[in-house]
Automatic annotation (TrEMBL):
Lineage: Bacteria, Pseudomonadati, Bacteroidota, Bacteroidia, Bacteroidales
Residues holding (6S)-NADPHX: N57, N58, G59, G60, D61, G130, S131, G132, L133, N134, K135, P136, D159
Record carries keyword Transport: no
Organism in which the protein naturally occurs: Bacteroides reticulotermitis JCM 10512
Protein name: NAD(P)H-hydrate epimerase
Binding residues annotated for K(+), in chain numbering: N58, D126, S162
Cofactor: K(+)
Keywords, comma-separated and alphabetical: ATP-binding, Isomerase, Lyase, Metal-binding, NAD, NADP, Nucleotide-binding, Potassium
Superkingdom of this protein's organism: Bacteria
Keyword Lyase on entry: yes
Transmembrane segments: none
Amino acid sequence: MKIFPSSSIKKLDAYTIEHEPIASIDLMERAAKALTKAITDRWKPETPITVFAGPGNNGGDALAVARMLAERSYKVEVYLFNTKGELSPDCQTNKELVEIMEEVTFHEISTKFVPPALTPQHLVIDGLFGSGLNKPLSGGFAAVVKYINSASAMVVAIDTPSGLMGEENTFNIKSNIIRADFTFSLQLPKLAFLFVENAEFVGEWDLLDIELNEQGIEETETNYEMLEIEDIRELMKPRSQFAHKGNFGHALLIAGSKGMAGASILAARACLRSGAGLLTVHAPLCNNDILQTAVPEAMVETDANEMYFAVPTDTDDYQAVGIGPGLGKNEETEAALLEQLEHCQTPVVLDADALNMLANHRHALTHLPKGSILTPHPKELERLTANVRILTSD
């Protein structure tokens, strides 16, 4: 699944409007119907609902949802923040539809905001700002966000939690971002959803199909994609009932050291489970017995060193090579790794200690065979990228 920056999402909206064709207000109505269904599927009509709408199209979505929920007998109170006296055209249209409804308690805030009482029984719908936000919230909007976050009500964010920018949030102000329990993203996920530091704001998220133009999505380029089960299924090749292990390649795994046999065992099992027909594990003598006992399907090639990887091995007869799990980081192993990579022509997967050692020899990464893969966790990636800090929490 493609993931687009906020600027591209706006273009996809425009592409859909032009090529379907459909009026922007009707596309907003379509989004509101999807949002309303998602909400009514989860919360019963006796749930009191408070809607916070901003002056843009995210606010327009929220107002349309408020109208539809009221039409379904939900008790709805709306706060539309229009501090500059300027609403987007579609937000203005939905304001005019909502403010005349007797079923909706409507407030348009231009100056002073008196916060409503929010109980644990309430559902808050956050429609203040969408993913197009490009700077941290401040002033009155920041105060509203802090009030919502301090309340005990359940919070649903429309498209993205208000205050959370679509991509880069490194310099955002955390206290000025809505902490949603649920986020209903329209059509596609936002890149920000996939960063661990944003999980506390996004909560549980789901995608709602608003039928953006498929051709537009297909033709629009992006640097980001999210791997899904369907993508994996497409990569799986059917296997003949007459196939045998010799048909599915021979993999080499260089792993393990004294006290780290478990890493080589787990990696060996994973390699076989992923579909390799044959597997050879190159490991020190101290790992030999446990490997042959724990993974009898694998062959074991013993390193000349009894305790750790010290002597490179020939990779010409293998279709894939994995290096790193449980290797340790002593000087002999580091030298053997560099020599191994210098002469390896087979695609290699580098993991764990192999990456940690290469952090001291990043030039070696430029010589990796085509098709090679690096699998760092955040700390390993931080070491590989030198001074670039990988955010994992605060």
